[in-house]
Design a protein that fits this description.
Blueprint: H1 4-12, H2 16-27, E1 33-38, E2 45-49, H3 63-80, E3 85-88, H4 99-110, E4 115-118
Parallel strand pairs: 3-4
Antiparallel strand pairs: 1-2
Helix pairs in contact: 3-4
Length: 122
């Protein structure tokens, strides 16, 4: 959680890095439903789901990992009855991928209308 959205999440949600680190050590690099966290900025409680795009935070994002994360995200939302899920453009800021030519076409083929992708940049 050393860069980009992950770094920001680490600063906003107490305990997230430790909890995620424990899961990564035990189960590997995949999407996780992390539960509810209180946002240090807004004070709101937010359900967090991870969406890995990199194998290491210093690497460029990996399209195969993004595809696997998208499929895992669908499974998590199905099992938890989540009907609306917001995410940023995965892999397109610090990850170095192009939204229009690389990531968007792949995600449009996988994700349904429950998933709202925000044009958020740090």
């Amino acid at each position: 959680m050393g860069a980009g959205i992950a770094k920001e999440a680490n600063m906003r949600f107490n305990g997230l890095a430790q909890n995620l680190g424990d899961r990564l050590t035990q189960y590997g690099n995949q999407a996780y439903s992390m539960g509810l966290y209180k946002d240090n900025v807004t004070g709101e409680w937010i359900r967090l789901i991870t969406f890995p795009t990199k194998h290491h935070w210093r690497d460029k994002s990996n399209l195969e990992l993004i595809e696997a994360s998208a499929k895992q995200l669908i499974d998590i939302c199905d099992r938890r009855g989540i009907t609306t899920c917001y995410l940023t453009r995965p892999g397109c800021a610090n990850g170095g991928l192009d939204w229009e030519s690389q990531v968007r076409p792949m995600l449009e083929a996988i994700l349904d209308d429950r998933f709202i992708i925000a044009d958020y940049q740090l």
